Amino acid sequence: MKKKYIVKDSKDFEKIIKTGQCEKNKSFIIHYKTNNLEYNRYGISVSKKLGNAVFRNKNKRRIRSIVDDYKKDYINNEDYIIILRKSGTEKKYNELKNDFFELMNRLRKNSRKEINNENK
Asked: What is the mean pLDDT of each run of 10 residues along the chain (120 residues)?
């Protein structure tokens, strides 16, 4: 993932989490907010409570790989903060990928409904 597609600054993380919207499932919590850029940006967080640095970095790499597969298909000019939940750490890669895609599809449906309601 290129640097321009990554949310790194802690101020950006806080802003997206506090002012953006949120969707959850058993594996992830995703906070999202519209940005003024021509591309999506992603921030990934794995809590220290879940494991040591090696464990956290491994899971971040897994999530980054899943996001790379997803971002090829869909661009909507939003920032996403992806937080891994404890139950997501016990899942295999394909299960985690399916959970992520389901959640992102739910986000897309919700954003379409909001746009349609604003246009009416």
From this structure: 84 92 93 90 94 94 91 81 93 93 86 57
Q: Provide the pLDDT for residue 49.
A: 94
Report, in angstroms and rounded to the nearest whole number, the Rg of the chain calculated over CA atoms: 14
Residue 28 is classified by DSSP as E
Question: pTM of the entire structure?
Answer: 0.87
Q: Which residues contact 4 (CB under 8 A, 6 or more apart)?
A: 39, 41
Task: Tally Cβ neighbours within 10 Å of residue 92.
Answer: 9
Contact 79, 12 (CB under 8 A): yes
Question: For the purposes of burial, counting CB atoms within 10 Å of the CB of 12, is it exposed (0-12), middle (13-18) or buried (19 or more)?
Answer: middle
Residue with token string 């999506």: 40
The rounded distance, in Å, linking the Cα atoms of 81 and 116 is 25
